[in-house]
């Protein structure tokens, strides 16, 4: 789009002229009212008329701009046509130059040769189309046979399925009841077998319980005598020598004590005094709570008897809690850690697990001392195993260990075991043993551990204390054994009843199975028949399957042949299309060479016509541009006229306001009034004189102007003259810029 800028300059009218007219008009105000109203109506009509002219000029300008745009598009199109026609003309000139008789003859010969190629390719396409038609016929026949074979196979498969279902139903009818009866019999026999095994187990439990009762009774009968006879008595000389040594463990006192103790020979003598009673030779579990109670009570009684001889009044105690703590400690820090305290010979062991003692003392928040003995591995009497140990073995181990601690504890131990037995309130120099409870446990190697705990209200090691009467402990063992026997007998009675019920169920199941076997002959015949029919159906299915596979293979082969024939046909068609395209190209070449003169003439004419069209289009564009310039000028003039009409209307309104607003008093007052009129951004200022000056000038004018009418007429005439002069002042708005964009 073109952008055009219009600048208009207008003439300037002196302000003084307008000022004088307004002043004189003020003097004749009374006679001018009707005239100014008429003037206002005229100027307003002029504004409307000039605005209509602007709208018409704008419409004409828009139409001219559209004409220019269309003419420009036509010029562009004509220019492109000239370029195209020029290229065609150049090609025609080159074709004319090449249109020699030799080239025409050569091209004609090439056309003839290519026509032969096209004919040959066309023949090949026809022949291959016949091959495709034959292959399609074979494929259609193979498809029909394959479809028939598939239907036959489906029918045979359905027959097999039907025969299989019928056979399954017949076999189910044959086996359902028999299977149920057989299962019932099997379950009944299994239950009877389990019940019989339970009875046997219950009987064994009863037998074991009866044996345990007998053993417990023997222990009750013998333990009191064992407790009274199995005591260790110390000589006055030994007690005196031990007290001297404990008070002052000098080498001299140690030698004197060793002399009085008489060494290992006296230990053997004491061990031989242990009462060996056959009633104690019953196999027991060393960790059984009742056995633990008997062992700890037995050991505490031996130790307290020695402490009494020594002159001590404080006794050791025994409790279930102390025994549990001893068993837990030995398992955790000896068995679980594979800690062999004595080793295999008594001299190659690891000794006490001191770290374990410290840790367990922290765990229980108390003081702990540990004595250990050879226990079940006493080398004097031979070695017993944990699996076959008896109450006799355990009691003898405790008796032998305590005796050994008293009389064969020299060397590096420095009589520490004896100290642990005979000290009061302290053990081996460690305070805090004011309430000692003993726990007894055997490790997995067979060695005995005697754990000495200081019991407090906080650690509860003294809770569940045992009576130190051995007879009471033995009686508890007997009571427990008798309760176990009663429970075993009751259990055996229940198991015997269950066995009787189970045997009756076996007999009932056997009778049911026998009855069903007698009524299954018809079902067996039906099963045989269905099996024969299934075999026949399967044979037919296999035959149909073989036929189906054969037909499917033939169909695949026919399909492959058809696809190959179609591919060959497509190749032949492509060859024919290429040959035809080449022939058409050669024919076009012959035609171009033969008609070179006509083609050149046509191209020349087309080129000249394109040039003429371009010339016409260019002329049309120039004319349209001239029309556009005219329309633009007319639009600018109309807009200027409209602006002037608006200014005149504004001035007329101002004059009317000035004349109507002045009173006699206003005109008589001194001073000077100024009115500022704004028109298009520039100020038109009119100065109004005072009333007294107007009167003086009026007299002068009357003296020099002809008097052709009354005062009203003269005032009207002067108002019109003044309005006309003010109208000329529209040039004061200066110049205006306007941009027109299309």
* Distance linking N and C termini: 5 Å
**β-strand number:** 10
User: Which oligomeric state applies?
Assistant: single chain
Query: What structural class do helix, strand and pairing data support?
Result: alpha+beta
Rg result: 72 Å
Strand order of the largest sheet: 2-6-7-3
Helix share, percent? over 70%
Beta fraction = 5-15%
Q: What overall form do the CA principal axes indicate?
A: elongated
Q: How large is the count of helical segments?
A: 17
Order of helices and strands: EHHHHHHHEHHEHHEEEEHHHHEEHHE
Mean pLDDT: 78
Stretches where pLDDT falls below 50 for ≥5 residues? 2-30, 670-742
Largest sheet features: 4 strands, mixed
What does this structure look like?
With 742 residues, the chain is α+β, with helices and mostly antiparallel strands. It is built from 17 helices and 10 strands. The chain has helices at 15-27, 33-98, 101-229, 236-247, 251-261, 263-272, 289-310, 320-335, 354-364, 391-407, 416-422, 470-517, 521-594, 596-661, 664-668, 691-704, 711-728, and strands at 3-8, 317-318, 368-373, 425-427, 430-433, 436-442, 448-454, 673-679, 682-688, 736-741.
Topology:
Blueprint: E1 3-8, H1 15-27, H2 33-98, H3 101-229, H4 236-247, H5 251-261, H6 263-272, H7 289-310, E2 317-318, H8 320-335, H9 354-364, E3 368-373, H10 391-407, H11 416-422, E4 425-427, E5 430-433, E6 436-442, E7 448-454, H12 470-517, H13 521-594, H14 596-661, H15 664-668, E8 673-679, E9 682-688, H16 691-704, H17 711-728, E10 736-741
Parallel strand pairs: 2-6
Antiparallel strand pairs: 1-10, 3-7, 4-5, 6-7, 8-9
Helix pairs in contact: 1-16, 1-17, 2-14, 2-17, 3-12, 3-13, 4-5, 6-10, 7-10, 7-12, 14-17
